[in-house]
């Protein structure tokens, strides 16, 4: 583990009213974990590197799950390669959006039922008008995950025909998954 | 194709839910029917969307465990286990062996309790009123034990990152031995009563078939996926806790119909009970909590960990920014993914079978909507 | 003269309390022992002044009688929202056996008397809940089961949760707990029965509050009607 400056890499404070002044962080310094793959993870990482080739911008991993970051415009191609290539990733196990304030990251956890291996694809989107091509044509499971990400984070998925609200309702304003969306405050009385 | 005169017919829309006794909560589906046949089905969810994932970002790690209790409110301990495992992975601590045994015993008991609830309510969906009484009788016994151990019937908040809250009471082992005998008898009784009943077979055999590749593509997991012949069980494929030291089988179905999905759960009850017996015989002495800080403040980083819930593969994607609150918690809800399989299963079946198919997926709306 | 049940006349009932006496005409009257309001012992009925005149006849306010009937056959709407629904089902099932209070679960709002809000009410579900409440015939009662239905509970800070179901519909009984034990739900129903009976006792035709309540119901109805029209 390595120590780093407490405020470096610290995400912006939550809530619109708090963003006016720079947050002062108390407490112990932030520790960043070293990501390390185990033997099985190394094998999967090799497979993933072979499959993606030049598409992978960045790669690392933890335990048995390697990840590779690809360009948002190439994600569909990379996902297709993972599904149809030697990795045989036939299940979209999980898909999530993460709000890093300056960008939105899409994370796809893929799983192969035949080889019993996991791998993760990541793609960075701009914070304003995030948009990434749909993977519904590759995995059925994509459709609902995408609708959820659209509800909570406002990510657009061209290629997904049905983008009606899934968890929220028609007329809900804002995207509550974003860090900037305010939560109710406690009222003591 | 009939050779008679062709008539134009208009498809009818049929709304089910959100208040409907057979939807197991606040689930709504709109069936498009042509006569008695279902042409299309549109599920509507979100009637229990409580914003758990967003709330977890403003709660400390210890508090998030209580939210996980309420995500899947039928198998609370399995959910706690999923989160504390993710927390342990990111903090790089291991729970002591005794704590792991206790967790597995409780999680497997919770699996039996959850499956019992499924069997009972599924029988109600199909018109049989008696089995649910039997099942709840046994479930009540299990909940009594939970109350004895954790202090609560449902929302336990018992597991901690690095162990469990408190050691089990002195009479735990004999109590569980007695409990297993009772519950096994109860499961056998229900099994004999229901599983091979002619009417029950007629309602479930060959209904709601989904083939393996489609099930995988929809992201199904747990008994719903294994019913289609895909042997995917996290306990076997990505072993965690002390599962590698136990001797058990994972039942796998063949046809992918409702009866297979139902019967796998019955078989899993027997397997779980035998696993608990093995755990009790192996239960070691020792500490129940890993040494270290009481307040979790994990290093910045991200982990994905998953475990086998009664409904399937429950994953937790946990991102930490180094503070005492998670930066992002994403739950991989098995019921949510299983529900994606509802459409391919239901299209082409009868309206009455839609209820049987939905019931066989064993969804929990708290987990679907989070 | 005290009458022994076994040695009495032909038309005597099997059990006759000791403190009752029989006069020549075959009538019973009370000896005054224990007072009129004391309860009978064992299987003996509580003494009632009317029996002095006409045995086997009860008089009571019609309101009281109706309230007695209502409170002993409360049909609840089969309607579970979240975690508390599991405890609600447990209460109905074999071990706790809700049927012994005359409480039966019924899947349609049209025949239901009580609505148990068992779980978190989210904003998307608010409209259907109000619709269900409107569909129930009067008189109707609502029990808010658990902290979520009472005040939002652990989801107080959430963006999608209604801070208590009383923002949407009137609530009669609040049950604390997360989730409440089955015993707590039973207690809530006993309280509700008491409430129904005491409401009938205190019922006065000329009570002004009656009109106020009717006005508020009308308001709610018109609000729902507007929503239905727009939908």
Would you spell out the secondary-structure blueprint of this structure?
The complex is a heterotrimer of chains A (189), B (370) and C (231).
Chain A: E1 2-3, E2 31-32, H1 39-52, E3 56-62, E4 65-70, H2 75-84, E5 91-99, E6 103-112, E7 117-126, H3 142-153
Parallel strand pairs in A: 4-7
Antiparallel strand pairs in A: 1-2, 3-4, 5-6, 6-7
Chain B: E1 12-16, E2 28-34, E3 37-44, H1 52-56, H2 61-69, H3 76-91, H4 97-125, H5 130-150, E4 159-160, E5 163-164, H6 172-194, H7 198-204, H8 212-218, H9 223-226, H10 234-237, H11 258-282, E6 301-309, E7 312-320, E8 326-332, H12 334-340, H13 342-346, H14 351-361, H15 365-369
Antiparallel strand pairs in B: 1-2, 2-3, 4-5, 6-7, 7-8
Helix pairs in contact in B: 2-3, 3-4, 4-5, 4-11, 4-14, 5-6, 6-11, 11-14
Chain C: E1 20-22, E2 28-30, H1 62-71, E3 75-77, H2 83-92, E4 104-106, E5 114-118, H3 123-135, E6 141-145, H4 146-151, E7 173-175, H5 182-201, H6 208-230
Parallel strand pairs in C: 3-4, 5-6, 6-7
Antiparallel strand pairs in C: 1-2
Describe this structure in words.
The complex is a heterotrimer of chains A (189), B (370) and C (231). The model of chain A is unreliable at 5-19 (pLDDT under 50). Chain A contains 3 helices and 7 strands. Chain A is α+β, with helices and mostly antiparallel strands and 189 residues long. The N and C termini of chain A lie far apart (44 Å). Chain A is globular, with a radius of gyration of 19 Å. The mean pLDDT of chain B is 87. Chain B has a 3-stranded antiparallel beta sheet. Chain B has one domain: Cytochrome-c3 Hydrogenase, chain B (Orthogonal Bundle). Chain B has 15 helices and 8 strands. In chain C, 35% of the residues lie in helices and 11% in strands. Chains A and B meet through strand 2, strand 5 and helix 3 of A and helix 1, helix 8, strand 6, strand 7 and strand 8 of B.
Overall 3D geometry of chain C?
A: globular
Extract low-pLDDT stretches of chain C.
Answer: 1-16, 34-40, 223-227
First and last CA, distance of chain C: 76 Å
Shape of chain B: globular
Mean pLDDT across the residues of chain C is: 73
The neighbouring-strand order within the major sheet of chain B is 1-2-3
List the secondary-structure elements of chain C in sequence, H or E. EEHEHEEHEHEHH
Task: Tell how many strands the DSSP assignment of chain B holds.
Answer: 8
Major sheet details of chain B: 3 strands, antiparallel
Count of DSSP E strands of chain C? 7
Main sheet strand line-up of chain C: 5-6-7
Strand count, sense and barrel status of the largest sheet of chain C are: 3 strands, parallel
Beta-strand fraction estimate of chain C: 5-15%
The CATH superfamily of chain B turns out to be Cytochrome-c3 Hydrogenase, chain B
Quickly give the structural class of chain B: alpha+beta
Structural domain count of chain B: 1
Strand content of chain B: 5-15%
């Amino acid at each position: 583990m390595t120590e780093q400056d407490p405020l470096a890499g610290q995400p912006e404070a939550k809530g619109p009213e708090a963003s006016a002044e720079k947050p002062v962080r108390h407490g112990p310094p932030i520790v960043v974990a070293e990501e390390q793959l185990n033997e099985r993870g190394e094998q999967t990482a090799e497979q993933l590197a072979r499959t993606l080739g030049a598409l992978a911008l960045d790669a690392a991993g933890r335990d048995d799950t390697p990840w590779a970051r690809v360009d948002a415009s190439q994600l569909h191609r990379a996902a297709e390669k993972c599904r149809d290539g030697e990795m045989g990733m036939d299940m979209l196990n999980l898909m999530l959006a993460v709000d890093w304030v300056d960008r939105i990251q899409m994370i796809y956890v893929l799983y192969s039922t035949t080889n019993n291996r996991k791998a993760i694809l990541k793609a960075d989107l701009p914070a304003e008008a995030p948009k990434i091509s749909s993977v519904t044509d590759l995995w059925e499971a994509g459709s609902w995950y995408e609708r959820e990400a659209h509800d909570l984070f406002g990510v657009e998925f061209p290629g997904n025909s049905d983008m009606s609200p899934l968890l929220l309702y028609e007329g809900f304003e804002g995207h509550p998954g974003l860090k900037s969306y305010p939560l109710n405050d406690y009222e003591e009385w | 194709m009939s050779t008679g005169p062709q008539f134009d017919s208009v498809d009818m829309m049929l709304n089910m839910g959100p208040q409907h006794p057979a939807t197991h909560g606040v689930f709504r589906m709109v069936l498009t029917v042509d006569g008695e046949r279902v042409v299309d089905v549109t599920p509507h969810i979100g009637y229990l969307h409580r914003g758990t994932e967003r709330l977890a970002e403003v709660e400390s790690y210890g508090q998030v465990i209580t939210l996980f209790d309420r995500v899947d409110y039928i198998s609370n301990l399995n959910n706690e286990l999923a989160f504390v495992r993710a927390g342990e992975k990111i903090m790089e601590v291991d729970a002591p062996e005794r704590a792991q045994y206790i967790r597995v015993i409780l999680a497997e008991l919770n699996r039996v309790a959850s499956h019992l609830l499924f069997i009972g309510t599924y029988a109600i969906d199909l018109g049989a009123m008696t089995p649910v009484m039997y099942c709840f009788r046994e479930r009540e016994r299990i909940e009594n034990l939970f109350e004895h151990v954790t202090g609560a019937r449902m929302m336990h908040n018992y597991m901690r990152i690095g162990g469990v809250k408190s050691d089990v009471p002195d009479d735990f082992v004999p109590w569980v031995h007695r409990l297993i005998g009772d519950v096994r008898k109860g499961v056998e009784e229900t099994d004999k009563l229901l599983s091979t009943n002619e009417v029950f077979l007629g309602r479930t055999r060959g209904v709601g078939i989904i083939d393996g590749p489609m099930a995988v593509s929809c992201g199904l997991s747990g008994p719903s996926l294994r019913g289609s012949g895909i042997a995917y069980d996290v306990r076997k494929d990505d072993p965690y806790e002390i599962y590698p030291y136990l001797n058990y089988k994972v039942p796998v179905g063949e046809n992918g119909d409702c009866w297979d999905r139902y019967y796998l759960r019955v078989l899993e009850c027997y397997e779980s009970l035998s696993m608990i017996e093995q755990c009790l015989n192996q239960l070691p002495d020792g500490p129940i909590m890993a040494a270290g800080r009481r307040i979790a403040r994990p290093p910045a980083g991200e982990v994905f960990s998953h475990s086998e819930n009664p409904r399937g593969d429950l994953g937790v994607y946990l991102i930490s920014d180094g503070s005492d609150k998670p930066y992002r918690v994403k739950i991989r809800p098995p019921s949510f993914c299983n529900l994606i399989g509802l459409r391919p299963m239901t299209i082409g079946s009868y309206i009455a079978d839609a209820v049987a198919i939905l019931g066989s997926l064993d969804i929990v709306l708290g987990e679907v909507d989070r | 003269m005290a009458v022994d049940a076994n040695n009495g006349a032909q038309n005597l009932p099997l059990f006759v309390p000791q403190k009752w006496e029989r006069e020549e005409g075959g009538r019973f009257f009370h000896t005054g022992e224990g007072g009129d309001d004391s309860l009978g012992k064992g299987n003996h009925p509580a003494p009632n002044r009317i029996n002095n005149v006409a045995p086997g006849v009860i008089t009571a306010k019609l309101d009281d009688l109706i309230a007695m009937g209502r409170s002993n056959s409360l049909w609840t709407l089969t309607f579970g929202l979240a975690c508390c629904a599991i405890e609600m089902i447990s209460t109905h099932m074999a071990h706790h056996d809700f049927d012994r209070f005359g409480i039966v679960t019924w899947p349609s709002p049209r025949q239901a008397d009580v609505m148990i809000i068992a779980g978190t009410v989210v904003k998307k579900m608010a409209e259907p809940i109000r619709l269900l409440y409107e569909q129930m015939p009067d008189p109707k009662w609502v029990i808010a089961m658990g902290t979520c239905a009472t005040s939002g509970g652990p989801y107080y800070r959430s963006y999608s949760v209604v801070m208590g179901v009383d923002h949407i519909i009137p609530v009669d009984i609040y049950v604390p707990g997360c989730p409440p034990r089955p015993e707590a739900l039973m207690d809530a129903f006993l309280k509700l029965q008491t409430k129904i009976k005491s409401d009938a006792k205190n019922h006065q035709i000329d009570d002004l509050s009656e009109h106020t309540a009717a006005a508020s119901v009308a308001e709610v109805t018109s609000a729902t009607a507007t929503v239905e029209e727009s939908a």
